[in-house]
Amino acid sequence: MRSALQPPRNVWIPWLYILVFIPVIAVNVMLVRLALSSNTGLVTDRAFDTGQSYNAVIAAGGRQRALGWVAAIDIRPAAPTDAPHRLTITVTMTDESGKPLTGLSISGHVISPVDPQPDLEIALGENAGGVYRGAVSAPRQGQWEAQLVATRGDDRFAIQQRLIAP
Hints:
Helices cover 27% and strands 37% of the residues. It is an alpha+beta fold.
């Protein structure tokens, strides 16, 4: 028979519950610190301001549709003797009736949508009636996005196309 002054034999059981949660809390603290110190996922410096310009983007899309211009993009790897990640971008511009659009100025950027790489500048020159061509060397293989703008006077036509650099 036990005396009232003797502690019970199972006094360590509540401490066992506390000891089980210590590694769980330590791992959670480590994961929170890692999440706060790693990539935020933002590619643009002013994401809020970019989101607020949504109505201007919609209006520009309406103006672009009113032009009736059509762009066909062809992206191919450059000749094997060139740089390993070099791409040739060909844009064929026509109007609604299929007639070639000449005298355009097409330029823009090739950006990396998956990591913060520096933008690559590109300008396309007119080769034939309505066919514009340019080349760009990506610093690495993988997914890129060509964001081009065709201009003639005050008319602007945005061209956007995902591409894969070999």
